[in-house]
Amino acid sequence: MATLGVYNRKHKVTVVGSGNWGSAIAKIVAENAKEHPELFEEEVQMWVYEEELTVPTTSKHYDPGSKFSTQPHKLTRLINHFHENVKYLPGIALPSNLVANPSLRESVHDSTILVFNLPHQFIGGLCDEMKDHILPYARGISCIKGVSVDSYDVRLFSETIGEKLSIYCGALSGANIANEVAQEKFSETTIAYDPPPVDSRNVSRNPTPKAGTPQSHTPSSSQLDLTAINEHKDAKGKTSKVKLIVPPSDLAPIDHNLLKTLFHRPYFHVQVVSDVAGVSLGGALKNIVAIATGFVAGLGWGDNAKAAVMRVGLLEMVKFGKMFFRTSVHTETFTEESAGVADLITSCSGGRNYRCAKMSVERNISIQEVEKEELNGQMLQGLSTAEEVYGFLKTRGKQDEFPLLVGTYRILQGEVKVQDLPDMIVGK
Question: Active-site residues: which are they?
Answer without folding.
Answer: 286
